[in-house]
Batch of 2 targets.
Target 1
Amino acid sequence: MIHEAAIRFERARVVYANGAVGLAGVDLSIAPGEFVVVVGSSGAGKSTLLRAVNGLTPLTAGSVAVHGQPVPRKEGRELRQLRAQVGMIFQDFRITRRLTVMTNVLVGRVAHVPGWRAMLNLWPEADREIAFRALERVGITDKAWVRAGDLSGGQQQRVGIARALAQEPAIILADEPVASLDPVTTHQIMRDLVRINQELGITTVVNLHFLDLARRYGQRIIGLRAGEVVYDGSASTVTQNDFRHIYGRDPDAGDVLDEDAAP
């Protein structure tokens, strides 16, 4: 049986207003339940690739589809419905620091409740239970009623992950989710993402800078260079020569996390 791709790019192209090419005719298929790590130099197109999946960066040409549904290029009801299926985790967490952890996680339920309930913070009990279970997944239920701004960076990123889980998404996109974290916390967050993928079967695509993290936690590695896919293979077989081809240079110490922090 042939299964429909969770994400499929066909000749996908993004050209920004200044003429910079974000994606240069990408053909790529990601299967349901895969854990994919995307690597490449700054400006290679990693963030553009992720943002095209939920329409934050519309394609200039070609197509991208989520479970067979084309991603609309314009804002509207169809795009909002598609985004409800796609959880996003950001490098800078994107949480509201003055609100409690629980309220931040409940934001993931916005697409599932009437707007007035979200505005007044009058969430149905069923949605509160979903949010609480999401906090359980990342091990911070004890912080549910703490002001989000009082948490450490790693805890704030766990709030971001829980908010994405509260959407009950089919896909999770994580754009450099550990770039601002210390090495020990970085490994904790990566283990959380892998465990969630394995336990819930949520298709997960993670942009990473550190090559050792990509090799250690990735199931499949996609290498981007100048907006093109130049590597697509198993993380278990990727070589230094492959990384050299992806980056156009020899990887250096800045491309590797402090291995002493690995558990």
Target 2
Amino acid sequence: MGGGAVAGGGIGVAVLALIGYFVFGIDPTTTTQIASQFGAAGSAEEGRQGTPEDQAGLFVDIVGRNINDVWATKLEGYEPPANIVIYTQGTQTGCGYGESAMGPFYCPADRQVYLDLAFWEQMETQLGASGADFARAYVLAHEVGHHIQTLTGASDQVRRAQQAAGSEAEANRYSVALELQADCYAGVWAANAATVSNGEVALEAGDLEEGLRTASAIGDDALQRRSGGQVSPESFTHGTSEQRMQWLQRGYQSGDPAACDTFANL
């Protein structure tokens, strides 16, 4: 081949920060500090449904179908997300009004994945994500991973555990486990993509390595170091570089969602 707005050839700092948070697990405050060199952008289109009538829609259609096909073989009674909505400025969702600054996200209330695709090219041109196709597919697979967690009840269990937690640090550990599991699920998809699609969707040489480098770069510890701040494990919400690499790779090497129990040691 895992509030601000995006338009034209620029990317807002808030957009970059929240894209980083919702897609790759980057803390918005940290990412805003890192991304202050980038300029803000203007407005863009309203939300629309993705269709195979353009390149982005075709990519989402093919990869999204493949992800669903993989999970239909891995999870008994699997029900795909209700839809994958492509939007660039804003769109109504079951979780409220979704804005471009939120980046790609999954809404459990309407069981839909929402993708702001304007940043895909900017990931490569401004953020150095040379493995663009894999990164795009990883984004989608990670968000569907959160849909899996809704179906299995893991998301609800985490919310209840966080409400009962005795401290913010304890609550954050559940958040880390949830995000690492979504990374692992993205790896499970990648491991099975070619078999299920008869080779139509498959990783090429170097794709996994690119994914692991990305996972390393977006660990909570790496981002805190890059921002010049002190590394504070109690504030982690998505996992360290090592953890993100480990769980993405574990999902890929096993190809089995049963290997993705990130909650076992909590």
